């Protein structure tokens, strides 16, 4: 047996031998793609050809914050969707069978038009729950910052938490327009369940419509600061000499 990180040169990998048809490889790195080559060694002069396979190790729970993702570590030679779901993320499709195909699933998308920075963003197309990697921190101690762009006000994006297979909504994103990416921040301190996966829900205003475009980029998950900023500042009674400001606390 010879193995190593994907793309390694044979002869420079780590080797193992066994007299059975089973072998356990230990000491691997999480969320890493490996190539493995196996051959039979029947005698000093009778050796089979190599048979190759590959696998990716599971993801570890993220314990270091802030955590960021801009999807620009993914690459493609085309100008269309990559068809790749982000590593360590997960999703559940909720549309009809027609909209369960790979092209409708959440995937890294190549487009300088829809990416906020760089060339890649996360495209949500078919109705779905798209779950971020798992974090060790309690969900109610976290905030989620991201940029997103939609192509219609009929497309609805909701941030929430997955409790096993149940989505608990926390905040529905309000768009001021559909021609540019917009910044959003969601404080998750109002969530008091036992879920551990932050999630996006992608839906349409009509329940029987099973597609809804959103492009999400430049995600940051961090701890909620101890002193929160104000929100919803309004200006009333403006005249030549004064203005009355109103705002609300989070």
Task: Provide a concise account of the structure shown.
The chain has 250 residues and is mainly beta.
Spell out the key features of this protein.
250 residues, mainly beta, five-stranded antiparallel beta sheet, elongated
Our Rg estimate from Cα atoms comes to 24 Å
The share of residues in helices is under 10%
**Mean pLDDT over all positions:** 92
Largest sheet descriptor: 7 strands, antiparallel
Number of strands: 20
- Sketch the topology as an H/E string, one letter per element: EEEEEEEEEEEEEEEEEEEE
- Poorly predicted ranges: none
The backbone outline, from C-alpha atoms, is: elongated
Structural class: mainly beta
The DSSP helix count reads 0
N- to C-terminal distance: 58 Å
Proportion of strand residues: 35-45%
